[in-house]
Amino acid sequence: MTDHKIPLAGVIGHPIAHSKSPRLHGHWLKTYGLPGAYVPMDVREDDLEDVIRTLPKMGFVGVNITIPHKVAILDIADLVTDRATLIGAANTLIFRRDGKIHADNTDGYGFIANLKQGAPGWKPSAGPAGVLGAGGAARAVVASLIDVGATEIFLSNRTRPKAEALKAEFGSKVHVVDWVQAGNMLEDCATVVNTTSLGMTGGAEFRVPLDGLRRGAVVTDLVYSPLRTKLLDAADAAGCVTVDGLGMLLHQAVPGFERWFGVRPDVDVATRAAVLR
Ligand code: ATR
Prior knowledge:
The chain contains 12 helices and 12 strands. By secondary structure, it is an alpha/beta fold. It has 2 domains: 8-106 and 253-276, Leucine Dehydrogenase, chain A, domain 1 (Rossmann fold, 3-Layer(aba) Sandwich); 108-245, Rossmann fold (3-Layer(aba) Sandwich). The strands form 2 sheets. A 6-stranded mixed sheet has the order 2-1-3-5-6-4. Strands 9-8-7-10-11-12 form a 6-stranded parallel sheet, sandwiched between helices. Helix 5 crosses helix 6 and helix 5 (107-118) crosses helix 10 (246-252). It starts with 7 loop residues before the first strand and ends with a helix. The mean pLDDT is 96. It binds 2'-monophosphoadenosine-5'-diphosphate. The site of 2'-monophosphoadenosine-5'-diphosphate (ATR) has 15 residues, from helix 6.
């Protein structure tokens, strides 16, 4: 918190109209009766640094950064946390009192917190994890799975070299599986994560064969529109424990809100309802 009477925060992206973050933070500000505001800001890449340097002078205590600026922001920030460096992207900025801009990545935290809440018995070491996709979201997922003790991660991506690149960075716990074998890979997995955009409303259909899903496996989909995806429905039918992706969005917002507004917010039924409304 700073000396400003009304702390301001927000989310910067391009485009930004679709973002659920203003509704989420607005709900928490209201729930906890806190002074403050959280606004969406549509900023082009060329203007990003100017905007970021100006916001603290206007009473902003920090912002979330979303697509397409999550990588570029690392060069603008004065301090970057180790996990943001490891993931190669930041989503949360804190404007410090000394003027320094601090960049962190809370996606991995949000991913793990969501799994823990949605599947309380989940153990990262229970068996291999299978991760579909090797984009930005997969980097956060793989980094956080390793961080909490996953021993083996099978990684499959349509464009295999991207999965190989992740393996090169994250090491021997990661095993690359060819995309055509992604369905077979699931047979061995105690944790299954879809980080691709497959199955998203308006996007390409999720076509990975799902008959290999193991009873009791914990299955989560980062796609949250629709909330119940084809993967989650198939996992339910196979006797898996399913966790939808909306919770990751909610949990990744917790550390930023706490730093900016001084209260650690709960992710509860009312939070979900407020965002879905
Ligand atoms: P994000 O930051 O959300 O991970 P991204 O970096 O654009 O977004 O990554 C999108 C992921 O979805 C990638 O793994 C991508 O596979 P490629 O690396 O082969 O592009 C995956 N993806 C998107 N459309 C896909 C499709 N039609 N079939 C298979 N994978 C797809």
